[in-house]
Amino acid sequence: MSTFANVFMALKQVILLQDRVERMEGRLDAMNDDIDGLAGMMRDLDKRLYAIERIMEFSARAPRQPPQLGIEDQ
């Protein structure tokens, strides 16, 4: 092979590698966006779970009252 052919092959490989790197950057950006979305969803779920836990805790602390009998039941 001539020197020109070697330079051409090396340049071709550099261009192909650059293309692969650019595609990988695009994929990483998309994955980063997905992770950000998942993190937001996890924060929302955490808040909802905390609210449910508070409701359950308050209901467990509330005094139990027997059901009120209506006039028909007496």
Give a verbal description of the structure.
With 74 residues, this protein is an all-alpha fold. Helix content is 80%, strand content 0%. The chain contains 1 helix and no strands. The longest helix is centred in the middle third of the chain and has 59 residues, at 3-61. The model has no long low-confidence stretch (mean pLDDT 91).
Order of helices and strands: H
Work out the helix count: 1
What is the alpha-carbon Rg in Å? 33 Å
**Which structural class is indicated by helix and strand composition?**
mainly alpha
Termini distance?
108 Å
Helicity, as a percent range: over 70%
Task: Indicate the topology.
Blueprint: H1 3-61
In short:
By secondary structure, this protein is an all-alpha fold. 80% of the residues lie in helices and 0% in strands.
List keywords for this structure.
74 residues, mainly alpha, rod-shaped
